[in-house]
Amino acid sequence: MRATEVEIPEIQKWDPVITERLIRYLRPAVKTWLRSEVLGLEHIPPGGVLLVSNHSGGALPTDMPVFAVDFYEKFGYDRPLYGLAHDIILGGPTSGLMRRLGLIRANRANAAEALRSGGAVLVFPGGDHDAYRPTWQQNVIDFKGRTGYVRTAIETGAPIVPVVSIGGQEGQIYLTRGKWLARRLGIQSKMRTDILPISFGFPFGLTLIPLNIPVPTKVITRVLEPIDVVARFGAEPDIAEVDAHVRAVMQEALTALASQRRFPVFG
């Protein structure tokens, strides 16, 4: 029986040829529009690795493209970079392309399979809650209490490599996540999200579900040293303790990046 596309594991849909073509066009955009820098890629060890990052940029997050451009430049296209993505991204007309570029549904089973295959997996535990954080909290690490990434690292034996990024949240002014509005309109049951963000930007001014065009902010991403969970926390690590440590390390690094930033947008 011939396997259908549905039966093919998601990680096997990654296409290095298509990915390389896209990165070729994407690189000038992120290096010119966002003036992006990715520091510390030498900290990523070989084999399966769980890259844990904060998430920025609302409806048009910059984290994945900025990181992917420099990741593939350093490691080449023999090593896939998988990104855990919300069902909404993988459910539209571009879902096939997204999967060929390495996006897989954000669940622990997919993450574990990708890690065991030797892939690098980029996860944003805070998801849309983090990506739409208010502007005055833009330099705060907030995973909304989600710790599934720790369990995945423990189950697979993959090291956790923290990644922090700054600048992506400066593309417009985020006023509120709009949880109260989402509850009133029943958004959660329809779209698997409990927020309805309100922002202010160009060219539409005040908007729901930010539709403004992000201004060209300078984005800097720093890869931190890997964390071997078992070596550091023992054979039976406490999930909350590991999560608290990861977030503390990331917060320290993000605060340091923020202290070096002279002006919003310009960097």
TrEMBL record:
Any single Gene Ontology cellular-component annotation: membrane
Protein's UniProt name: Lysophospholipid acyltransferase family protein
Phospholipid/glycerol acyltransferase domain: residues covered: 49-168
Domain of life assignment: Bacteria
Keyword 4Fe-4S: no
Source organism of this protein record: Mycobacterium paragordonae
Keyword GTP-binding part of the UniProt annotation: no
InterPro entries: P_lipid/glycerol_AcTrfase_prd, Plipid/glycerol_acylTrfase
Lineage: Bacteria, Bacillati, Actinomycetota, Actinomycetes, Mycobacteriales
Molecular-function GO terms, alphabetical: acyltransferase activity
Keywords in alphabetical order: Acyltransferase, Transferase
